[in-house]
Amino acid sequence: MAGVTFAKGGVHPAEHKELTEHLAIEEMPPPAEVALPLSMHFGAPAKAVVQKKQEVQEGDVVATVEKGLGATIHSSVTGTVKAIEPRPHPTMVRCDAIIIERDPAAPPRVYEPVDWLKLSGEQLLARVKEAGIVGLGGAGFPTHVKLSPPPTAKVDTLILNGAECEPYLTTDHRLMVEMPQKVVEGAKVLLKILGIREAVIGIELNKPDAINAMNKAAEAASGSDATIRVQGMTVKYPQGSEKQLIYALTGRSVPGGGLPFDVGVIVQNISTTLAVFEAATLNKPLYEKVVTFSGRGIKRQANLKVKVGTVLSDVVNYLGGTTPDLLKIVSGGPMMGFAISTLDVPIVKTSSGVLFLDKTETDVSPHGPCIHCGWCIEACPMGLQPKEVAIYVEAGKGHLTEKFGVFDCFECGCCAFVCPARRPLVQFARLAKMAIKRGR
Ligand code: SF4
Ligand code: SF4
Fold it and tell me: Regarding the domain delimited by 1-27+107-362, which CATH topology (the fold level of the hierarchy) does it fall under?
């Protein structure tokens, strides 16, 4: 199978996937306590609908969003609400969280299968909303909103994003290898919601076992109601970002400031599709997920199914602790993830991986001045000029960088990855966006 790819830029970072790509998904026993942040989605924080000392069952609604963008939050354990208080958060420093003490005697909740084929597209969409599903690839955009494009949008194609192009991360890879039929059935649910029949699953060629498994499942599921096919993609970062993925798989270019539905496409990632499958076929909300824990700074690497709200220190203890060489902890992949400074942060809905990097895997040396090599411009998949943005920001003129298309920067990190001067070009782009919004 020949691979397809995007048109401009891109880089080839060391993959490091060998640490976890062959490790079967393992279920971590539920922790004694979970911390459920009220913000783990794009949009306004949810509002708690439970009180201190209230008993809750696994899967019960504990927070809702009344207006605007957001997602319902469910308890990931059966137990008692211990507190609602600010706690560390992987991307927001601190955020109010519902703390639930698990009842160790409570059995896990069992969900009975539902015949989703009898449900209409509207009923299935309502299930997705009730289940609190958000984009699990990192952005956390509410899935029910993404599945409701305006009537003027002529959506004809569903793309399942199986690229998983970030180094280290192997969650979607393992889901595709271990449960391809569920992923494909989730795709059929999505097709029914969207009222279309074409789906393409894009997978990078470094996952031949996933391509094989998904091919078989897609062939078996395709029929009069759906055509689902697998397309191998060249191994190149950021193959999995929406605009690059859409171009690679359909040849369509999403315009600057536009959205995938503008070119007739809706993209969902593999983990999100599995959550949709569980919501439709079991009526199960999203409160546990598979996360990759990797890097050479932790004693044991794993693809772990964990309860949302599990605090990272509990995961680290379960995996045998960190190594003496641990230098940096990153939430997400090394290209787009965020450094975290405490093990007190919980796993949230959008956690795809947590990396424990030692000195052989991360470089914390200081950056130097720009040597005008132009490599960052060549590497940028959006055709931007990261070096100019950085120079303006350093000169206190970040508010004048809109002319360089800085709002098209999706912070993929390709520019910083190739920069021989180790300039923090993504941080400069973030500062530039903030300066433009501030107007100075
Ligand atoms: S981080 Fe932004 S500027 Fe840098 S390569 Fe990616 S899109 Fe381009
Ligand atoms: S890659 Fe780094 S040193 Fe080279 S032009 Fe870009 S910012 Fe300057």
Answer: Rossmann fold (3.40.50)
Rounded distance from Cα 134 to ligand 1 centre (Å): 25
Question: Which spans in 15-170 are helix H?
Answer: 121-130, 143-146
Helix (H) or strand (E) holding 36, with range, is strand 33-37
φ, ψ of residue 183 to 5 degrees: the values are -60, -45
- Cα 398 to ligand 1 centroid, rounded to whole Å: 16
Which regions of the chain carry the CATH code 3.40.50.11540?
Answer: 1-27+107-362
Give the three-state DSSP class for 184: helix
Burial class (CB in 10 A: 0-12, 13-18, 19+), 147: buried
Q: pLDDT of the chain along its 440 residues, tens only? A: 668 999 999 999 999 999 999 999 999 999 999 999 999 888 889 999 999 999 999 999 999 998 889 999 999 999 999 999 999 988 877 899 999 999 999 999 999 999 999 999 999 999 999 999 999 977 799 999 999 999 899 999 999 999 999 999 999 999 999 999 999 999 999 999 999 999 999 999 999 999 999 999 999 998 888 999 999 999 999 999 999 999 999 999 999 889 999 999 999 999 999 999 999 999 999 999 999 999 999 999 999 999 999 999 999 999 999 999 999 999 999 999 999 999 999 999 999 999 999 999 998 888 999 999 999 999 999 999 999 999 999 999 999 999 999 999 999 999 999 999 999 999 999 999 999 999 87
Q: Give the closest ligand to the alpha carbon of residue 370.
A: 2
Nearest ligand for residue 415 CA: 1
Give the predicted TM-score (pTM) of the model: 0.95
Q: Which of 377, 382, 389, 430 to mutate to test the pocket of ligand 1 (most atoms within 8 A of CB)?
A: 382
